[in-house]
Structures are given as structure tokens and as C-alpha cells.
């Protein structure tokens, strides 16, 4: 079977249609699926074909909005809501226990949710909020679901960002955050670098039994309409104009539909099977734009060990 070559303008619907056979009958769990966000773009495209689509959010009414929107478009879709706050170990443990009790297998786990890119905030577990929600929570959730993932030779997809290339891991403050050294953009870049390292380490440590991929979805405007801290942070550095519009001179933007495409390719493209740990952009594996720190296995191993210490559990296979 031949598959198309995708472009930066390929949409989530186009990629999902190309891999309809691979998606068919699969159970997919994707985090962070509010109707105005990137995750919803991927979720609604997969819902047409998936056997079961599990979507998550911190607030039940927001998840139900997404369920209703998907069902309105695809009435026969099998969609299940799951309450999950990745910034809370307690919430992660509760949600993982619920998923582990499901009778269905789990074929694909997509980590899409992310914290606000704003002022220094501590999570309820006393971690910097972006690092907590974007890396530590997903690490713990994956660890708790590992037996289910291994049983189905699952793929794990971690939505990173091209901003990881500017990231550095501040090892001294991961477990003991320091407000005086924090900057929201640096915190974001660090968390997204952690995403790339996690995908590499998860594939390696599982002996390839779990294939994990990280990716850059492209620059997508999900914050200007909502305002909020992420918008304020990006406006302060000129990514949004003083009038609140996307700055097309600074950034090449994608639509939400285009932004959701690479996630689906990472989850289902059979051409990348066996290439776990790779990084994707524009729905294909790339080696361009990868932070050199992400290519050092020692960094992935150290982050893994530090994260185990933070969550208080060993992640073994």
C-alpha cells in the first residue's frame, strides 16, 4: 500500500483519511482536547475512524463540550470523556486507574495537553507548573499505563515544539523550583525539550516495545481569542502584535486543521514503525531543528532518573 507525501499545508482530516485503515478499530487516548485547541483538531479527525476515542481535560463540562462537538460531526463516533489534570499527581493516578479498568486495550497515547505559558506558578505537588503538566504528569501517566501499552505494542506521541531547540534543562531547579530564575518562555522551552528526551528514553528503555515519537505541530494560534497568560507572554515578545493579531512577519503560521496533522502521522503512519524516538515536523520524520542536547542519551537517562525521583516511583518494564 502506498501513502501520500504530506506537506506543511496537509490537514488533520487528510492525514487521518490516508491512515483510515490504521486508525480503524484502535483505542486512542489524547490529552488536552478543549474545542478551541490543537488537541481537538486531531481528536475530531481521528474520531471518524477510531474504535474508541478517549479525550481528557481538567474540567468535566469542557470535556463534554468536546464530546458533543465531535458527536455532532460524527454521530456514530465512540467518544469517552476522562477527567485529568496533568499538574496533579493525585488526578493522574485517579485517571490512570480508571483507564486501567477499561476492558478495551490501549493502542495509542497522545500527550497533547500543556500548561499556560505565564508567570511562575507552583503545581499542587510543588513543581513549576509548565514542567509539571508538560513533562512530569505525562511521565507518571505513561508509567501507570505501561502494562496496558505494552500489551498492545502501543505508540506514544508527545506533542513538543520547535521551541525545544532553545531549551536547556536546569537540573538544579527541577525538583526545587526557583522563581528568581524563571522565565515563561525558558520554562516552555525546557518542558518541550523534556518531551523530546522522554520519547527517546521511553523507546530505548522499553526495548522498542513502546514506540514513542515527539513532534513540532507548527505555530498555531490557539491563544489570541482566549487571551490569558500564554497570549500575554507571546505578545510581549512580538509573536502577537500589539493589536493581538498573529505576527506573520515573525512566524509562519498554520491553521488548527493543519496543526493537528503531524500528531496523527506520528500515531499511525506505518512508514515510521521501528523508528521510535524520532522527531516529526510537517507529518514526517526530520533531523532538522533538533536541539543537540536532545541527541545525547545521557541527558535522556538523567531526566528519566530525576523524574522518577520526583514522582517517587521507578518506571520499569
Report on the architecture of this protein.
- This protein is α/β, with parallel strands linked by helices.
- It has a single domain (12-310), classed as Rossmann fold, CATH 3.40.50.720.
- The protein has helices at 12-18, 20-23, 38-47, 60-73, 89-101, 129-151, 184-205, 228-236, 256-259, 261-268, 297-311; strands spanning 27-30, 52-57, 79-83, 108-111, 155-159, 211-216, 219-220, 253-254, 279-281, 284-285.
- The strands form two sheets. Strands 3-2-1-4-5-6-9-10 form an eight-stranded mixed sheet, sandwiched between helices. It has a two-stranded parallel sheet with strand order 7-8.
- The two termini are 34 Å apart.
Number of strands: 10
- Please indicate the count of domains: 1
Strand order of the largest sheet: 3-2-1-4-5-6-9-10
Distance between the termini: 34 Å
**What's the CATH H-level homologous superfamily?**
NAD(P)-binding Rossmann-like Domain
Kindly estimate the percentage of residues that lie in beta strands according to DSSP: 5-15%
- CATH topology title: Rossmann fold
Shape: globular
Average pLDDT, to the nearest integer? 96
In N-to-C order, the SSE pattern is HHEHEHEHEHEHEEHEHHEEH
Family: Belongs to the short-chain dehydrogenases/reductases (SDR) family.
GO molecular function: oxidoreductase activity
Keywords: Oxidoreductase
Protein name: Short-chain dehydrogenase/reductase family protein
Amino acid at each position: 500500500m502506498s501513502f501520500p507525501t504530506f506537506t506543511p499545508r496537509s490537514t488533520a482530516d487528510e492525514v487521518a483519511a490516508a491512515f483510515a485503515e490504521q486508525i480503524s478499530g484502535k483505542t486512542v487516548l489524547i490529552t488536552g482536547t478543549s474545542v478551541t485547541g490543537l488537541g481537538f483538531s486531531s481528536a475530531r479527525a481521528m474520531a471518524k475512524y477510531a474504535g474508541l476515542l478517549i479525550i481528557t481535560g481538567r474540567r468535566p463540562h469542557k470535556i463534554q463540550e468536546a464530546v458533543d462537538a465531535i458527536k455532532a460531526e460524527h454521530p456514530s463516533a465512540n467518544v469517552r470523556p476522562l477527567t485529568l489534570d496533568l499538574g496533579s499527581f493525585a488526578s493522574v493516578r485517579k485517571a490512570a486507574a480508571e483507564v486501567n479498568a477499561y476492558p478495551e486495550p490501549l493502542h495509542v497515547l497522545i500527550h497533547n495537553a500543556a500548561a499556560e505559558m505565564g508567570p511562575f506558578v507552583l503545581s499542587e505537588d510543588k513543581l513549576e507548573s509548565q514542567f509539571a503538566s508538560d513533562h512530569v504528569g505525562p511521565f507518571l501517566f505513561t508509567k501507570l499505563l505501561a502494562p496496558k501499552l505494552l500489551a498492545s505494542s502501543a505508540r506514544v506521541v508527545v506533542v513538543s515544539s520547535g521551541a525545544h531547540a532553545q531549551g536547556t534543562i536546569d537540573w538544579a531547579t527541577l525538583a526545587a523550583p526557583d522563581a528568581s530564575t524563571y522565565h515563561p518562555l525558558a520554562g516552555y522551552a525546557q518542558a518541550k525539550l523534556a518531551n523530546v528526551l522522554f520519547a527517546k528514553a521511553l523507546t530505548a528503555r522499553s526495548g522498542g516495545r513502546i514506540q514513542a515519537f515527539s513532534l513540532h505541530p507548527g505555530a498555531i494560534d490557539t491563544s489570541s481569542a482566549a487571551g490569558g497568560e500564554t497570549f500575554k507572554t507571546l505578545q510581549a515578545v512580538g509573536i502577537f502584535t500589539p493589536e493581538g493579531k498573529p505576527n506573520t512577519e515573525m512566524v509562519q503560521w498554520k491553521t488548527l486543521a493543519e496543526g493537528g496533522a503531524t500528531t496523527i502521522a506520528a500515531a499511525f503512519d506505518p512508514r515510521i514503525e521501528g523508528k521510535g524516538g524520532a522527531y516529526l515536523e510537517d507529518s514526517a520524520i526530520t533531523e532538522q531543528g533538533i536541539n543537540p542536547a536532545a541527541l545525547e542519551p545521557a541527558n535522556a537517562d538523567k531526566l528519566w532518573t530525576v523524574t522518577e525521583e520526583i514522582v517517587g516511583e521507578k518506571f520499569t518494564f
